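Form 7-S
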Amino acid sequence: MTRMFTGRGCCMDDGPLFGSPSERRIANKFHDGNGSDGKHYWLTPTDMYAQLDAEFHFDFDPCPYPKPDWFDGLTCEWGKSNYVNPPFGSIMHNGRKKGPTAWMRKAIAEQAKGRLSVVVYPVDKWVLMMLAATGSQNVRNLGDVKWRATEDGSVGNGTGRHIAAFILYPRGSQS
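Output:
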């Protein structure tokens, strides 16, 4: 099976993926950094990705890093098993501001086509607690993930919020 971007792109630490500033630039509000450290784009820790990949066997990443200029994860067809770590803020897409809702809609549309997606996104811990209390079986708490900086690979402090892994199994499949 061919892996586009090796399934380890956007927000995935896979060693020295530190492209030129023009390769790293993506039109979003985090473009110029987050204050004093100037870092604006974070990668998934290798161990976290490896653990999820061992279970779900990802073959596509619709949010690759570095993202080729021609690539559009919101409009392309996704793979059979997708690791989705979308931008945590809004981006400009075809002249319109798009946020996490656009990525969630796309993952749900891909689910309806028989594709699996694991979408990671920050949520408040209480939300995860309530999902667990109400019996949700396809949402996991990954904790306060220590993302890696694209600029130098350094480990960040985390977001201060827990990261949920929303597992969208293909419709009609066993979870």
